């Protein structure tokens, strides 16, 4: 038994994290990696105090990796939705050191300490009203059990911005042969090797496979009536049948 959900995330305020840094600009790109979504959705939990400063994704998701697969989230392609609001701001602030050293700046070995240098930069974030979509595949679960595992709201990003979560059950069928990837996945989430049409996107900590053609077993996710919201035929979303979080790293 395999169930699947289409999950829509609607930002309810600013969501910020540094996808890339160009000079003094810290840019939040409209992609939520599944390295973040497993934690945001409450499917995994990490250490409250981390003194090793090394990723623990494999250990944290070991109990659910075979049962639940969450794709990365990308802007919705529904008309009038998707990436609707990005906010760019400039900040100018003092250092966030925990203590002030009380001695003359001229005595500091750090030559910059004697200068009045501001800390400034620009930040581009996802604002209110952006809509992103991901998919959750549950193995050995029915749609009701899978839906019960998904919270109504999540917190995302460095400042834990709020996003509303909406779900829609999908039908799942299996097939084999050549297929095109229907939604981005993590670069390490399948053992299949792309045979063509490959487009990747560099992200941290894992790259995304934005599109690719594969040869092998796949899952096809479709709305129950086979139509999309506009009443047109839905070709479904195809994912590798072995799609597992960080599959090739386990």
Automatic annotation (TrEMBL):
Residues 222-235 have a biased composition (Acidic residues). It comes from the Archaea. InterPro entries: CRISPR-assoc_prot_Csc1 (IPR017576). It holds the Pfam family Cas_Csc1. Residues 215-250 are annotated as: Disordered. This is CRISPR-associated protein Csc1. It comes from Halarchaeum rubridurum.
